[in-house]
Specification:
mainly beta, four-stranded antiparallel β-sheet, about 0% helix
Length: about 210
């Protein structure tokens, strides 16, 4: 296919090490791994500000109204670089404060309507779970030694799209949150890397 080169550079490349950019209401939010924190960038004014400085931020997602971020973090044991805890928590952009429950044992969490969809670690296995406002977990799909899940995102009001590693082959799946029926999409790609949804369409990068 055609390779598109972005000539509309928004941020100076020497200033940030950008990962997981998300956009809403003319603002871009991303993780900066130079200064270890979360940055808000105003597309129109080209101004930026740090919302939070802290280590171990793995990924972020943003609510549809642009008011809150969902921040996935990892805590390490000092000096040993040993993971002691993974969790997700909501972050109020206006007040620049974390709030609500800390959802432990999950990663790659993102908003799903008024709930959260995430990857729940079950020993060495991965499950896709739906978490309600009270912190109750509902398993949508269970993984095993051959099936590993990642990158769950809201596809529409009833479905979640995700990446599945099926015996080393990376594919895209979708699951209904009501019936828990799961489908694997028929695409001629063997290694999907990242997944995003816009206007109920799935976008992904691949090797």
């Amino acid at each position: 296919g055609e390779i598109l080169v972005n000539t509309n550079l928004l941020t100076p490349p020497q200033k940030f090490n950008i990962e997981y950019p998300v956009c809403v209401n003319g603002k871009i939010y991303f993780i900066d791994h130079f200064d270890e924190g979360i940055v808000e960038f105003d597309v129109k004014s080209k101004k930026y500000r740090f919302l939070f400085l802290g280590e171990g931020i793995n990924s972020i997602s943003i609510s549809k109204d642009g008011k809150n971020l969902l921040v996935n973090r990892t805590h390490y044991r000092s000096r040993k670089n040993e993971i002691t805890k993974i969790f997700a928590r909501k972050f109020d952009i206006k007040s620049k404060r974390f709030f609500g429950k800390k959802y432990e044992g999950v990663r790659e969490a993102s908003f799903f309507n008024d709930k959260i969809v995430a990857i729940k670690l079950r020993k060495h296995f991965t499950d896709i779970v739906l978490i309600d406002e009270k912190g109750n977990f509902e398993t949508l799909v269970r993984g095993n030694e051959n099936i590993i899940f990642g990158n769950p995102v809201q596809l529409n009001d009833k479905e979640v799209a995700f990446i599945v590693n099926d015996n080393g082959i990376m594919r895209i799946g979708r699951v209904s949150v009501n019936t828990k029926e799961t489908y694997i999409l028929d695409i001629d790609v063997k290694f999907v890397r990242n997944l995003a949804v816009y206007d109920e369409k799935i976008y992904f990068s691949y090797n």
